[in-house]
Structures are given as C-alpha cells and as structure tokens.
Design brief:
Elements (H helix, E strand, L loop, with lengths): L14 E5 L7 H14 L4 E5 L12 E5 L2 E6 L1 H6 L4 H14 L10
Parallel strand pairs: 1-2
Antiparallel strand pairs: 3-4
Amino acid sequence: MKTFKFNNIFDLFKIICVDEATANVDLETDRLVQDVLRTTLHDCTVLTIAHRVESVLGSDRVIVMSSGKAIEVGHPNLLLQDPQSKFSKHVAGQQISQDGGQQNQTSEM
C-alpha cells in the first residue's frame, strides 16, 4: 500500500468548493474564516458560493447567477464600477439593508 505524506489536507486538492461557509456567522467571524481560506488555499482554485458580498470581494472573478444561469462574469471591482450591473445593485441593496438593521438575503442574483 502506498502512503502519502502531506502537511495540510488541502495539499491534496486543487479545486475546493466552499458553499455558504459563513452564512450563519457574524461579520467578524466571516472575516476570520475568509482570511483563513485565503491563506490556507492560496494554491487552490476556490469556488465560493455566497450571498454575503464580503465573502467574494477578494476573489479574482465573480459569477453572478440567476435562475441557474450565469448573467455576469468579471472581477468584483470592475462589476462594482458599473452601476447597472446586477452585482453592483446587489451590493448596494445589501448596504442599504445593513444600514437599516437587516441584511437582504433575498435579492435576486
């Protein structure tokens, strides 16, 4: 039997899917988790499924989905610069909701 030696379980994987990893935690915990993911998985392709915008702002590319279809693809900063983009509108909706004390988790994306 062949044995493998590795220092980190993530050394075995090149693609990792993170599905709503921080959906039920506060923003401070979300930031901590995102920092750990970025430092631990820096050599991996990470597919992040998230409604919370903070979870994807540091990504290289964002794919905005609606009804199971990709409706926008691009770097988050570029999408944010376009006030007509669905991503930009979603971010603006979350900011307004957070200012009002509730986070909008139901906006269409």
